[in-house]
Amino acid sequence: MARILGIESSCDETAAAVVADARQILSNVISSQIDLHAKYGGVVPELAARAHLERIVPVVREAFAQAGLSYGDVDAVAVTQGPGLIGSLLVGVAYAKAMAWSLGKPLIGVNHLEGHIHAVLLQAEQNAEADQIEFPLVALVVSGGHTALYLVQRAPLAAKGFRYHYRLLGQTLDDAAGEAFDKVARHLGLGYPGGPVIDRLATRGNPDAFLFTRPRLRRARPYDFSFSGIKTAVVRRVEKNGLRGEIEQRLARRRADPQAPLEQLCTPQTLDLLASFQKCVVEDLAERTLNAADDHDARTVFASGGVAANSRLRTIFAQESAARGLPVFFPSVQLSTDNAAMIAAAAFPRFLARDFADPLALNASASLPLGR
Ligand code: KG4
Ligand code: ZN
């Protein structure tokens, strides 16, 4: 059995986990910085890097404590190498390099997006459903920083284990889907992060109240995405329908009482607007993903990343893929958003292939690509 320590610090979560054979989660510790960034309405890179620095040591210590292991018990150290915020990535990478070097253990640099894809495989292992996953598959990675579609192939290695191959089919040309959720929430005075709040409030609104036109991309780019247009359309609706006053009132109430329930501070019109916005975004994600799956004869569909925690997205994906006879898999909500268990899981095939990084030379990369 190979026990791998995973470390993740690409954005605003400091995370460490120990996972055995990409299957058994021995610990999964996440220290979120949401409270730190909430008052700025988004992640402030300098604050994030400093917070990672303060938290990485206790977070790793906690991951070992929960797993009931000591540092020397792991077989390898895996770390998110990129993409992400460079100052944040550097904290995890420097820590992992020092740890691997001092313990004399192999070091594995993992692409964050590959981690999100392996979160789905790890979840399927938890549900004893891994044998239902067939390749090739189409994976949507959709978060606050990324919206990308991959065609994933898997080939057995001569010795043991598999090699995964990723082909980038398309990605967002402007904002990530999660960014659109966050910006709309911020504009409407609903706080940060926007996704979970909008998900909750949208259940009380009518998703057909407002018709937003879906992005029209050139025929040559059927699997690309664009979300800045819908965000602007929501902002325009706010002005046109005179919702400014309501937003000011909501912000004032929340300043006086940060716990004041948003449900009671939103008019039916605002709830309709949120529901309609969410519907437009998730339907667009589902349609492009399932079209890509059809066009590439995929046998399975994956959706992962923070936005894949969205309840309407899950419903639409389940409905649409069932209609096409395609099984769809998601991680649990905890494994959808950033975590280190997915990094440890993604590293396992590379551990088997002895595909290690030099602990003195590994570098963080803010724009590390996955597939081409
Ligand atoms: O994967 P993640 O934790 O970090 C990145 O790699 O970006 O994703 C965070 C993003 C944020 O934009 C957040 O608003 C969004 O995921 N998110 C959601 C939901 N939960 C988180 N978006 C829509 N619905 C949700 N339930
Ligand atoms: Zn992520």
Mind explaining what this structure looks like?
The protein is an alpha/beta fold and 372 residues long. The protein is 44% helix and 18% strand. The protein has 12 helices and 10 strands. The protein has helices at residues 34-38, 45-67, 86-103, 112-126, 177-187, 194-202, 228-240, 244-256, 268-295, 311-323, 333-336, 341-352, and strands spanning 3-8, 13-20, 24-32, 76-82, 107-111, 137-142, 147-156, 162-171, 300-304, 328-329. Strand 4 (76-82), helix 3 (86-103) and strand 5 form a beta-alpha-beta unit. The longest helix has 28 residues, at 268-295. It binds 5'-O-[(R)-(carboxyoxy)(hydroxy)phosphoryl]adenosine and zinc ion.
Task: Give the gist of this structure.
The protein is of the alpha/beta class.
For the biggest β-sheet, the strand order reads 3-2-1-4-5
Radius of gyration: 21 Å
Mean pLDDT: 96
Span of the ends, CA to CA: 33 Å
Bound molecules: 5'-O-[(R)-(carboxyoxy)(hydroxy)phosphoryl]adenosine, zinc ion
Taken from the alpha-carbon principal axes, the silhouette is globular
Low-confidence stretches: none
Strand content: 15-25%
Helix content: 40-55%
Class by alpha and beta content: alpha/beta
| Largest beta-sheet characterization | 5 strands, mixed
* Tally of strands: 10
Topology order in helix (H) and strand (E) letters: EEEHHEHEHEEEHHHHHEHEHH
Total of DSSP H or I helical runs spanning 4+ residues: 12
Secondary-structure map with pairings?
Elements: E1 3-8, E2 13-20, E3 24-32, H1 34-38, H2 45-67, E4 76-82, H3 86-103, E5 107-111, H4 112-126, E6 137-142, E7 147-156, E8 162-171, H5 177-187, H6 194-202, H7 228-240, H8 244-256, H9 268-295, E9 300-304, H10 311-323, E10 328-329, H11 333-336, H12 341-352
Parallel strand pairs: 1-4, 4-5, 6-9, 9-10
Antiparallel strand pairs: 1-2, 2-3, 6-7, 7-8
The structure holds 5'-O-[(R)-(carboxyoxy)(hydroxy)phosphoryl]adenosine and zinc ion.
